[in-house]
Write a structure and sequence with these properties.
The protein has 349 residues and is of the alpha/beta class. It folds into 3 domains: 35-181, Rossmann fold (3-Layer(aba) Sandwich), CATH 3.40.50.300; 187-253, Helicase, Ruva Protein, domain 3, CATH 1.10.8; 263-327, Arc Repressor Mutant, subunit A (Orthogonal Bundle), CATH 1.10.10. It has helices at 13-24, 36-51, 69-79, 95-103, 121-133, 170-174, 187-201, 207-214, 221-238, 244-253, 263-275, 283-290, 294-307, 322-327; strands spanning 59-62, 84-88, 110-114, 135-140, 147-152, 157-162, 178-181, 311-314, 317-320. Mean pLDDT is 87; it is low at 1-11 and 337-349. The chain contains 14 helices and 9 strands. Helix 4 (95-103) runs parallel beside helix 5, helix 7 packs across helix 8 and helix 8 (207-214) runs parallel beside helix 10. The longest helix has 18 residues, at 221-238. It is globular and about 70 Å long. The chain binds adenosine-5'-triphosphate. Residues 21, 24-26, 32-35, 65-71, 114, 161, 163, 193, 221-222, 225 line the site of adenosine-5'-triphosphate.
């Protein structure tokens, strides 16, 4: 197996994962798989800006983790030949943090703020003016003698990413010229993501094995790439070709079941089923019971479980569906016990 992309750093597993992600990141819209609608919308927006020789409108990218928000922000900069500045909501805890970034942007720069919903309120307010008029007001002095001094900014494009679009205040949301809602990828798209990644890694893997991985990636390219890495490790260590048998063995070893549920998904589901009789159970109770942040459950675990029809959200809390009882081979309230099995994907729950 050749290895054209150097990815192994024996001293830092985290860095190796990051290097792996970086190496596989598509650089252009053409390389970006899936999300056809969003790609078309972005293409038009970028082209219109180019024809008018101006900075593209501000863009909000909304959707669950790992679907390509950071990648798209990089593509917006790359396609327009613009410099990119990256920051994140948690790193902007004071208006001054944002002022420092905004005042140092060069003309046409793309400013990417990941997890923009976690930015401080005071910074949000500063951003309104910056987005609209490329201007901020800086407070000089304290108390009665404080004055506000306007500061002109270089024109820039803000690309905000959020897993929780609902948490953004309306005035901020309204200032984005375009909001892209990223959807989970279907299996055919994930096969393309995997085939592309395998090609870049020089990994000789057949279509059946790729399809087996695609079915377990929870509609998420980041997970697809991560599973491919595990499959690659397994094949390497066992001196085997990464065929469907070794894919199954590798993913079983890493606790990824045929539906793509991982350890945390299963902890959430079995807690709901066994401890709370299938619900309804509130998000925070569920989070405490499995020892995870409520935000992680809501942003990472729940959207997928809802999508594949294992849970529903009700005003009284989360409820396990009959399909969930079946998948875990448990007898639900008033249901016949079952041996468990695959659940069909429910796309529009
Ligand atoms: N459409 C795609 N085609 C090919 N690879 C993709 C695509 N989208 C994402 N990826 C891959 O998935 C990985 C994760 O993508 P990215 O970091 O852009 O996700 P994200 O939505 O920003 O996640 P988070 O919300 O956690 O920051 C990247 O390394 C990239 O290689």
């Amino acid at each position: 197996m050749s290895d054209p992309v150097a990815l192994t750093d024996p001293h830092s597993a985290g860095d190796a994962e990051l290097a792996f992600e970086g190496a596989l990141r598509p650089k252009t819209l053409d390389e970006f798989v899936g999300q056809r609608r969003v790609r078309g919308q972005l293409q038009l927006l970028l082209r219109a800006a180019e024809l008018q020789d101006r900075t593209p409108d501000h863009i909000l990218l909304a959707g669950p983790p790992g679907l390509g928000k950071t990648t798209l922000a990089m593509i917006v900069a790359y396609e327009g030949g613009r410099p990119l500045r990256m920051s994140s909501g948690p790193a902007i805890q004071h208006a001054g943090d944002l002022a420092a970034i905004l005042s140092s942007l060069v003309s046409g720069e793309v400013l990417f703020i990941d997890e923009i919903h976690r930015m401080a309120r005071s910074a949000e307010e500063m951003l309104y003016l910056a987005m609209e008029d490329f201007r901020i007001d800086i407070m000089v002095g304290k108390g009665a003698g404080a004055t506000s001094v306007p500061l002109e900014l270089a024109p820039f494009t803000l690309v905000g990413a959020t897993t929780r679009a609902g948490l953004l205040p309306n005035p901020l949301r309204d200032r984005f010229g375009f909001t892209a809602h990223l959807e989970f990828y279907d299996e055919a798209e994930l096969e393309l993501v995997l085939a592309r990644a395998a090609r870049l890694l020089g990994l000789d893997i057949d279509g059946e094995a790729v399809a087996e991985i695609a079915g377990r990636c929870r509609g998420t390219p980041r997970i697809a790439n991560r599973l491919l890495r595990r499959v690659r490790d397994y094949a390497l260590v066992h001196g085997a070709r990464p065929d469907v048998t070794s894919v199954k063995a590798a993913l079983e070893l890493y606790d990824v079941d045929p539906l793509g549920l991982d350890r945390l998904d299963r902890a959430v589901m079995t807690t709901m089923l066994e401890r709370f009789g299938g619900g309804p159970v509130g998000l925070s109770t569920l989070a405490v019971s499995v020892g995870e942040e409520a935000e992680t459950i809501e942003a990472v675990v729940e959207p997928f479980l809802v999508r594949i029809g294992l849970i529903t959200r009700t005003p009284r809390g989360r409820v396990a569906t009959p399909a969930a009882w079946r998948h875990f081979g448990l007898a639900g309230p008033g249901a016949e016990p079952s041996a468990g099995g695959a659940v069909p994907l429910v796309d529009d729950l």
